[in-house]
Amino acid sequence: MNIQLLSHTKFSQLAAQWVAIGMNASAGGDFVGVIDTSLLRGELRVRESMRKHVSWRAGGTAEYFYLPADLHDLALFLSQLPRTEQVWMIGLGSNLLVRDGGLRGVVVALHARLNDLLLIEQDQAGGLIYAGAGVPCAKLARFAALHHLAGAEFLAGIPGTVGGALAMNAGCYGAETWQIVDKVRTIDRAGELHERNPEDYIIDYRHISLKQEPESVGKEEWFAGGWFRLAQGDQDISRQKIKALLTARIHSQPLNFPNAGSVFRNPTGDYAARLIEASGLKGYCVGGAMVSTKHANFVINNGDATAADIEAVIAMMSNAVKERIGIELIREVRIIGDARRNRE
Question: pTM of this prediction?
Answer without folding.
Answer: 0.86
